[in-house]
Write a structure and sequence with these properties.
Length: 112
């Protein structure tokens, strides 16, 4: 398999932006830093079918739980899935009133 070069420091590739209609400005919501080691770890998971419930996920969950001082941690496939678990654990349903800030992700609403 041929190694592909990733544009590690190319902001146009790794900075998600929200374009504000009619104002000609961009709001940069985050600027992630992704190292070659991290990219190779992701590629390794994809190649070895280890992405969903494999050993890498178990290792990540136990390392995260230990790092934050909890007995367990659960990795999810998306922010929506994570919010779904949070809402279920707090017994929040679609009929409950939830107050959200004006600039937020769509994920919490999708999880209800």
């Amino acid at each position: 398999m041929e190694k592909k070069e990733y544009p590690m420091n190319n902001p146009s590739v790794i900075i998600p932006e929200t374009h504000v209609k009619g104002r000609g400005m961009k709001i940069v919501s985050s600027k992630p830093t992704i190292t070659r080691k991290e990219l190779e770890a992701v590629l390794d998971c994809l190649i070895n079918d280890d992405l969903v419930a494999g050993e890498s996920v178990k290792t990540f969950e136990s390392s995260l739980a230990k790092m934050i001082g909890l007995k367990y941690a659960v990795a999810t496939s998306s922010l929506t899935a994570a919010y779904h678990l949070v809402f279920k654990s707090l017994e929040i349903s679609g009929s409950d009133e939830i107050i959200m800030p004006s600039f937020f992700s769509q994920a919490p609403l999708s999880a209800l």
